[in-house]
Specification:
- This protein is mostly helical and 436 residues long.
- It has one domain: SecY subunit domain (Preprotein translocase SecY subunit, Orthogonal Bundle), CATH 1.10.3370.
- It is built from 18 helices and five strands.
């Protein structure tokens, strides 16, 4: 891989795509520091300082620190993800959307347009809820977080936050189309990675003041390295279904049967289930933390990262979305039909319905193990926080997203290299799937 990276610059188009991606990610990070008008920044900072260790910390991580500063990107990309979840769920039950999903590129574009509209609506609703909540909140010294409350502030906040989310959505789409990698995932990736230096600095400060033992920090780092290795091991795991094509006569020549395989990943859904699950939990949690009502505060407390309810709900949503997203991405019936159409078959399995059932059975079992793996990695840090009582800044969810997005982007770069006859560049480190 090292040799391939050194020669990436020899491919002009790939070079432009990578540069374009970095530039748009830099624009996103600059926007994180542009404040929303009408906020007392010092009072807001004091409020977030008091909220350490709650679910609000998790929200701040996914927004790359934008919510903590209440910048124009305070809502992050979560409204877009929530809108995507809603549209995909509706695709299963609404005939019109189901028909659009089967119409190829034109139908996909229409569904994307509906998702954009949904993003704007959700952003406006969240913006209104947060602005109303902020007006009733005060800092530790009793100072107002919003010095001049009223509908002027609310409308300004709604417009600013909605425009910020729409702009992030546009950045993500541009990266996907003209850059390298999945734009939405890379934006979340950039927000998480940008907080690494702060987390390291806070950890060193705790070690200097004696609040955290140096040996304990070493153990945490070793654990993190082990989790990363485990994530890579599973993400590259595959179950290969052998496919055989029979001999056929073309003119006067007999061509031998070809043998190939269908690679089924252990985790076909990638990092989408944790992102979707986080989005569904974060959506109400964001509003709850900014509304000063006792019963809502009780809900917020029960959804803290160390609470049993939070972890059960989070793991359940991850398992659900692992199956749901895999079912959307991979249809065994279509695969079996295409194999039958071109004469392919699984040795020992009759073509058609039997092949579809065989593939579906294998995919269901793989998805179960993949879902359990995702839930375990994402929930594990919550138990570490509860047992060891230390700030675990970057847990399983963030590590999973960082490693998963990095692997996906590296594979896309490799695909561009291979597509332009640069196979030899990556011969020593090609990201092949590990056969399971």
């Amino acid at each position: 891989m090292a040799g391939g990276i050194q020669n990436i610059g020899k491919i002009p188009e790939l070079n432009r795509r990578i540069l374009f991606t970095f530039l748009l990610l830099a624009v996103y990070r600059i926007g994180v520091f542009v404040p929303t008008p009408g906020i007392d920044a010092q009072a807001l900072s004091s409020f977030f300082a008091q909220a350490r260790g709650t679910l609000l910390d998790f929200v701040v991580m996914f927004t790359g620190g934008a919510l903590e500063r209440f910048s124009v990107f305070a809502l992050g990309i979560m409204p877009y993800i929530s809108a995507s979840i809603i549209i995909q769920l509706l695709t299963v039950v609404v005939p019109h959307l189901e028909k659009l999903s089967k119409e190829g590129e034109s139908g996909r574009k229409q569904i994307v347009q509906y998702t954009r509209y949904g993003t704007v609506v959700l952003s406006a609703i969240q913006g209104l809820g947060i602005s109303v909540g902020l007006e009733s909140m005060r800092g530790p010294a009793g100072e107002l977080i919003v010095p001049m409350p009223g509908w002027g502030f609310r409308i300004m906040t709604i417009i600013t936050l909605t425009a910020g989310t729409a702009f992030i959505m546009w950045l993500g789409e541009q990266i996907t189309e003209r850059g390298i990698g999945n734009g939405i995932s890379l934006i979340i990736f950039a927000g998480i990675v940008a907080r690494f230096p702060t987390a390291l600095g806070n950890t060193f400060s705790l070690v200097k003041t004696g609040e955290m033992n140096l040996l304990f920090v070493v153990l945490l780092i070793a654990l993190m390295v082990g989790v990363i290795a485990f994530i890579i091991f599973v993400e590259l795991g595959q179950r290969r279904i052998q496919i055989q094509y029979p001999k056929r006569m073309v003119g006067r020549k007999m061509y031998g049967g070809q043998s190939t395989h269908i690679p089924l990943k252990v985790n076909s859904a990638g990092v989408i289930p944790p992102i979707f699950a986080s989005s569904l939990i974060i959506f109400p949690a964001t509003a709850v933390n900014f509304i000063d009502l006792p019963w809502l505060k009780a809900i917020s407390s029960s959804l803290s990262p160390t609470a049993i309810l939070y972890n059960v709900l989070y793991a359940g949503l991850i398992i659900f979305f692992a199956y749901f997203y895999t079912a959307i991405q991979f249809n065994p019936n279509d695969v079996a039909e295409n194999l039958k159409k071109y004469g392919g078959f699984v040795p020992g399995i009759r073509p058609g319905t039997n092949t579809a059932e065989y593939i579906d059975r294998i995919l269901t079992r793989l998805t179960l193990w993949g879902a359990i793996y995702l839930a375990f990695v994402c929930v594990m840090p919550s138990f570490l926080i509860g047992w060891w009582h230390v700030p675990f800044y970057f847990g399983g969810t963030s590590l999973l997203i960082v490693v998963g997005v990095a692997l996906d982007t590296a594979q896309q770069i490799e695909s561009h290299v291979l597509a332009r006859s640069y196979e030899g560049l990556l011969a020593s480190g090609r990201l092949k799937g590990r056969r399971g």
